[in-house]
Amino acid sequence: MNLMLMTDTFDRFTLEDAVIKTFAAFSIDGLYDSTFFDGENGPEGRQSFDSYTPWGLLRHNCTEIIKGRHTPVFMKYVLHGCKEDFGDMPEYADIKALLMIIRYDPNGLTVTTGTSMNSFSLDRSIDDLWDNAVKELLKKKNVAFEEL
Question: In the chain, what are the helix, strand and coil shares in percent, each to the nearest 5?
Answer without folding.
Answer: 30, 30, 40
